[in-house]
Write a structure and sequence with these properties.
CATH topology of the largest domain: Quinone Oxidoreductase, Chain A, domain 1
Distance between the termini: 15 Å
Bound molecules: NADPH dihydro-nicotinamide-adenine-dinucleotide phosphate
Oligomer: single chain
Number of domains: 2
Number of strands: 15
Order of helices and strands: EEEHEEEEHEHEHEHEHEHEHEHE
Helix content: 25-40%
Number of helices: 9
Radius of gyration: 20 Å
Largest sheet: 7 strands, mixed
Shape: globular
CATH superfamily of the largest domain: Medium-chain alcohol dehydrogenases, catalytic domain
């Protein structure tokens, strides 16, 4: 029976257990994927902690790459042996193998290896919707990007730079600042600096066109303060905890601001939408415009250590979990 990470109650990394699970034949419209690598994402920690509750016991993990092992009735696009990747919910990619609907699965282009594919789909599609949909960056825009040396951050910084934006990154250490600069941030601020003040100084007092804020509670008002008139606050994560309720007048006071709180799955809710978004992502990664740095590798059964590192801000770029060879 395939090995899999399971948890039976919400909590810290210690609730993650290595178990063996029954994975039967794929049902109609499904495929069975034998994973070669699973991507680690901050959202996995929200599922584990109960911030985003799941029916328990549950698996974990929303993206992976691998080989098709079997296909169910009605599946014509995939065949055993095909190299694929996916982003899918409910989470269950921290496993050696699983069944899932073929409609969530994509062929991996030849130019992209398995670890990169496993690491990039959820984070890269997030960068795509942030920059192309939530606030579509225009050439010449200044934008502010938190966790700029992280998984989403490094992809978004490179992509925004390619789209012609000036990216001001925020990070928590000098080593991360170096990585954020290498990813295309023209200026990098430290998380403990007065970020809004520094942003105003860097933009002749005007503020930025958009803030892409994944930190949440701790940075929300500093992010609003960093925006130009009619600027857009894209609050897309809760690394420091969820944003508290606030008065709409705060937006009026700061210059008729826009706020959005997006979620990836709303931007890839049709097969055509998923294919179009993934096509753009595969193009920028396949052509080398965006480099997905897989900076940490863990054994799949060691997922608890990976979670501890991610939550303690010890990781940079992307991380993958690897089943035993
Ligand atoms: P990262 O690799 O970016 O890791 C999280 C980073 O957040 C840390 O390295 C750290 O960078 C920063 N951070 C700031 N404050 C804290 C804190 N209090 N505790 C821990 N980390 C903190 O993770 P991902 O790339 O997987 O995800 C980035 C963010 O994007 C997450 O918040 C995630 O929830 C969000 N996300 C949202 C999606 C959506 O559709 N809404 C989809 C995908 C991701 P530093 O030390 O430099 O500050």
């Amino acid at each position: 029976m395939p090995g899999a990470i399971r948890f039976h109650e919400p909590g810290g990394p210690e609730v993650l257990r290595w178990e063996h699970v029954e994975v039967g034949e794929p049902g109609p419209g499904e495929v069975r994927v034998r994973h070669t690598a699973a991507g680690l994402n901050f959202i996995d920690t929200y599922h584990r902690s109960g911030l985003y509750p799941l029916p328990l016991p549950s698996g974990l993990g929303s993206e992976a790459a691998g080989r098709i092992e079997a296909v169910g009735v009605g599946v014509t696009v995939f065949a055993p042996g095909d190299r694929v990747c996916y982003v899918h919910r409910p989470p269950d990619s921290y496993t050696e193998a699983r069944n899932l609907p073929a409609s969530s699965v994509l062929h991996v282009p030849d130019a992209i290896d398995d670890e990169t594919a496993a690491a990039m789909l959820l984070k890269g599609l997030t960068a795509w919707y942030l920059l192309r949909r939530s606030y579509p960056v225009q050439r010449g825009d200044s934008v502010l990007l938190y966790a700029a040396a992280g998984g989403v951050g490094q992809i978004a910084a490179q992509w925004a730079n390619h789209l012609g934006a000036r990216v001001i990154g925020v990070v928590s250490s000098d080593a991360k600042a170096e990585q954020a600069r290498a990813a295309g941030c023209s200026e990098v601020l430290m998380a403990d600096e007065p970020v809004a003040e520094r942003v105003r100084a860097l933009t002749d007092g005007e503020g930025v066109a958009a803030v892409y804020d994944s930190v949440g509670r701790d940075t929300f008002f500093a992010s609003l303060d960093a925006l130009r008139r009619h600027g857009t606050m894209v609050s897309f994560g809760n690394a420091s905890g969820p944003v508290e309720p606030f008065a709409l007048l705060e937006l009026a006071r700061r210059g008729s601001l826009y706020v959005t709180r997006p979620v990836l799955f709303d931007f890839i809710d049709t097969r055509a939408g998923l294919e179009a978004a993934a096509g753009e992502l595969f193009d920028v990664v396949g052509s080398g415009i965006v480099r997905v740095g897989v900076n940490q590798r863990y054994a799949l059964r060691d997922a608890a250590r990976a979670h501890a590192d991610l939550e303690a801000r010890r990781t940079t770029g992307s991380s993958v979990l690897l089943p035993d060879a």
